[in-house]
Amino acid sequence: MAAVSLTLPRPVVSFSVSPATADKPVKCKFRVHCCKEVNGRPGVEFAGGNQNGSAGSPEKTTEREADVKRPPPRPRRIILVRHGESEGNVDETAYTKVPDPKIALTEKGHAEAEACGKRIRALIDKDGVVDWQVYFYVSPYRRTLETLRSLAKAFEKSRIAGVREEPRLREQDFGNFQDRETMKVQKAVRHLYGRFFYRFPNGESAADVYDRITGFRETLKADIDIGRFQPPGNRNPNMNIVIVSHGLTLRVFLMRWYKWTVEQFQGLHNIGNADMVVMERGYGGRFLHTSIALHSAVS
């Protein structure tokens, strides 16, 4: 069989360059005419170039990629809740026979917690949005866990984005089993020494609580920055964080968050059982305290 010799014409490349001006860069375009017709078939024509002189089309960032690069929206608000009335609030001798982490709520405390949940629900409903959710952080003590279970009755399961038990939110450690008379003496000494720095024997000072709350605050800020409260790709700006903890712990949290001084802390008192402090998201994503009522019983 005789060999067939096929000669293909060479591609022709043509450039056009526009000179640069004071306000426009060099504009370069090229066009390739490849084999206008080969064996009766039409050839191919390519064109390219952009205003900065590089070949090919400019990179395009998709809307999804841009969305990933944007930081997640900050929560709508942070709500601090103290546990409901506990057995220790009613009878201090409970601490002499029951470990502090196992002190339960009273019947009144459960009712207070349910009422608190309804107040939180009403507050969120006022926003007038349909896609809101709540995310809970809670101290591992029995009275705070029971408070959470009672107040959570105000929310459908679909509204609860998650619950995290956080040991750093526990109550100040007053030192294992607490003898009533000994505690009276210790609290009197604390008043003389200073409520922030006085450390209970075998226990903690408020300064010790400050140190662990500082660690929790950094965790919380990191969770906010990465949008831990939401599934990947979900950018709901109507998330509400609820922190269920203890009187002194919440005061220290506010002190650390707003950089209050020790002197300012000394003038604070606990909020009431099942009361709350609301930190609303304000200008620039900062959280403003709008309902501080630190005026109840002394810790």
UniProtKB/TrEMBL annotation:
Residues bound to substrate: 82-89, 143
Active-site residues from the entry: 83 (tele-phosphohistidine intermediate), 171 (proton donor/acceptor)
Region Disordered, residue ranges: 43-74
Annotated Basic and acidic residues bias: 60-70
One example GO MF annotation: catalytic activity
InterPro entries (UniProt xref): His_Pase_superF_clade-1 (IPR013078), His_PPase_superfam (IPR029033), PG/BPGM_mutase_AS (IPR001345), PGM-Related (IPR052765)
Stated name of the protein: Phosphoglycerate mutase-like protein AT74H
Organism ancestry: Eukaryota, Viridiplantae, Streptophyta, Embryophyta, Tracheophyta
